[in-house]
Amino acid sequence: MYLLDTNIFLELLLDQKESSSVQVLLNTIVPAELNISDLAFHSIGIILYQKNAAPLFSDLVRDLFGEGGITILALNSEDIARVEQVAAAFRLDFDDAYQYSVAEKFDLTLVSFDADFDRTDRKRIVPADIR
User: CA 80, CA 97: separation in Å to the nearest integer?
Assistant: First the structure.
């Protein structure tokens, strides 16, 4: 089971250089094995709205989370102390520490283009690593 970081979806939605590897990932792995944090989900919405691409966010919600079946996961208030611990231990900012904590809580493999996760004990993989 995988936790997809914000940058995975943005790579595809903004048609960046690794968008094809993200598309392969989404076409290869069954949606029931894919997850996203609530923070990443909302961050994607914020970024797309800032880029005047609200319809793109609506399409994403419908295609991947509504019909597609990717699960949105959240931390609760009791988990926030762990986010702070993770941020300090691995020198991560809030969003990376949150992602790490979600992956840890739900025992998921983190999929990200963000090399900051390489400093952690969980590490990360990129879409091309999944076959």
Answer: 10
127: left (phi over 0), alpha (psi -120 to 50) or beta: alpha
Query: What confidence tens digit (pLDDT) does each residue in 50-61 have?
Result: 999 999 999 888
Q: What is the CATH number of domain 2-129?
A: 3.40.50.1010
Q: In what order do the strands lie in the sheet with 71-73?
A: 71-73, 34-37, 2-4, 109-111
Domain ranges within the chain, ordered by starting residue: 2-129
Residue ranges of the chain with per-residue pLDDT less than 50: none
What counts of helices (H) and strands (E) characterise the chain? 6, 4
Structural tokens at position 11: 């790579």
